[in-house]
């Protein structure tokens, strides 16, 4: 008899029977409130009827229309719709299947377009698990330890971790930009640097919003040195933060945007977008993939974008996110184990740490496990695993946010008493 590999680290023992909206119905008969959304993927909730209908209809037309062999209608429609939401000027789109593949595509593009070898990523960033994407990832040792050598030509610069340093945000940004300039002077000169890659909110690295001034500093340096600014919106994009793109909070123009996860409510599709002249610097055939831009996934993405617009889900993420945050802030005042609450929209993190900021992964894990008993699903993140992340569906209701907060409160009480 075969069993699942222990390589998979299981966050909960739940086995799903079916799911709808924000609720997962398990085979044990329990009904769980899902604040994990498949790691920020089921943006329109589980099995939104419009997404299900679009996928069903597409399955009956064509499932796999390999996109370098023949084009298909859902991909053309999706490209048209993305044109309405992508940052201005990023009008050329390449599709892949997973976030990691799209990250790799952006690195290939930056290297080919500039003719330069190096990529600079930022401390605590998560960009995926394929070997190249893992080489950019410093969100935790488990993503890279033991399987080196990783891709060469990657340098990791400091991120403005204001909370960890015990500084205010402006001081942390000034420090991180100075360190970046020093790296560009001494380690990877601009002539050797193809791209910067950064998340608008650190995801697996601890749910830390990237300060606007830091992204603006990167934009300014990218312009000055001809470096490609790649913004990894795989987790923070598609409405999650209460604006369509996470970088909209900083008012910064990226050269390349990477999107995946929430784009198709759970169907696997990812994309990178860039200005046509930048994309044109890579030669035709330099990127591709058997399953890229799958027809059913593309149809689900078209339906997802339709639902997000019709149901005002970006606004809902902002409003419900504010309700969630208010509840979490109140809990921080009550529970001393909570060191910090932060995030944007429906991407909120609760860091467990002592008064001197020593990370407390034991309590985070105990709360996450106690929440399962309350029938609330949560995930942890951060290099120490001491942050609980709350990532409800973009169409979560006020009542569901309140239900989640009261279950979370119960879990905190039982784990810390
Ligand atoms: N970038 C970011 C910001 C992510 O959050 C993730 C997934 N957690 C990835 C890239 C990798 O995506 P995938 O797991 O689909 O390869």
Automatic annotation (TrEMBL):
SUPFAM superfamilies hit by this protein: PLP-dependent transferases
Pathway membership, UniProt: Amino-acid degradation; 4-aminobutanoate degradation
GO molecular-function annotation terms?
(S)-3-amino-2-methylpropionate transaminase activity; 4-aminobutyrate:2-oxoglutarate transaminase activity; identical protein binding; pyridoxal phosphate binding
Q: Is Transferase set as a keyword in this record?
A: yes
> Per the record, a Pfam family?
Aminotran_3
Catalyses which reaction(s): (S)-3-amino-2-methylpropanoate + 2-oxoglutarate = 2-methyl-3-oxopropanoate + L-glutamate; 4-aminobutanoate + 2-oxoglutarate = succinate semialdehyde + L-glutamate
* InterPro entries noted in UniProt: Aminotrans_3, Aminotrans_3_PPA_site, Class-III_PLP-dep_AT, PyrdxlP-dep_Trfase, PyrdxlP-dep_Trfase_major, PyrdxlP-dep_Trfase_small
Cofactor(s) needed for function: pyridoxal 5'-phosphate
Give the enzyme's EC designation.
Answer: 2.6.1.19, 2.6.1.22
Q: Does the keyword Transferase apply?
A: yes
Q: What is this protein called?
A: (S)-3-amino-2-methylpropionate transaminase
Recall the taxonomic lineage recorded for the source organism. Bacteria, Bacillati, Actinomycetota, Actinomycetes, Micrococcales
